[in-house]
Amino acid sequence: MAQPDCPAEEINTCAFRAAAFTMDACSVWTGHAHRHWHLLHVEAGEFEEAGSRHGFHVRAGQYRLSPGGLGHEIEVGCRPVACRNVHIQDQRLSARLSHTLGHGHHVVDAADLAILAPTAAAARAAPLENELSLFALVAELASHLEGRRREPRPAWLEQAHALVRETDARIDEIARQCRVSREHLARTFVSVYGCSPVAMRLTTAVQRAVTRLQLGDEPLAEVALVAGFYDQGHMSNAVRRKLGVTPSHVRRSARSHSSNLGSAISG
């Protein structure tokens, strides 16, 4: 039996492409390989997988993390399998995974992790917030697979996280306030949150801008300043890099969705 089609993505940014889907009972996903590092979270059911090096079993409550280019085939048992499929497109994160984990399939129990994948509803509601959650999840998976023991997060890290997300303070100033070096701040962010403070701030600013674009009619220049960008051009470039569309397109899409919903309700 040929593998079924996947649904449209819940999230599609420069860093991740993710979607929930179901594999039918007794189906076979024929031999294939993914272009990017690939994370599969099994929410229900189980299946047998034949990888390029060995076969293995994956069940509900587990993650399967695999590098790009590694062939595999999936055979589903007598019950359907509900999954969330995440393609890791961020080049720096992929490079770190390749360096630390090598070229092979990795299966991890979700119960062994301190961080879980965000729900499908959360992904649809705020895809860039979901992106940050996925960065942190992949960092946690990599640390677990490397065998690094997690120490309790220091108080300064929570302070730094809040300052990066909620203020426009320079990263150097945040490091000084937290009494750590900029280099240590950056290394700790990458280890715990999966991305640098600069990347986290940019993602947060874009999500803030997208929310305002979807909910209001403010001029684009005003949205840019409130969201934390230097100017409208800075915001436009960031939104286009993250989402592949312009701020105007984000606003038009939100209005079109609202109009369609209103028509459906009134009809």
How would you characterize this protein structure?
By secondary structure, the protein is of the alpha+beta class. Helices cover 48% and strands 21% of the residues. The strands form 2 sheets. It has a 6-stranded antiparallel beta sheet with strand order 1-2-9-4-7-10. The protein has a 4-stranded antiparallel beta sheet with strand order 3-8-5-6, with no helix packed on it. The longest helix is centred in the middle third of the chain and has 20 residues. The chain starts with 10 loop residues before the first strand and ends with a helix.
Structural class: alpha+beta
Radius of gyration: 20 Å
The rough form would be described as globular
Strand runs, count: 10
Looking at how many chains there are and whether they match, the oligomeric state comes to single chain
Termini separation: 41 Å
Mean pLDDT: 85
Low-confidence stretches: 1-6, 259-267
Count of alpha/pi helices: 10
Q: How would you write the strand order of the largest sheet? A: 1-2-9-4-7-10
Note the beta-strand portion. Answer: 15-25%
Percent helix range? 40-55%
What is the helix/strand order? Answer: EEEEEEEEEHEHHHHHHHHH
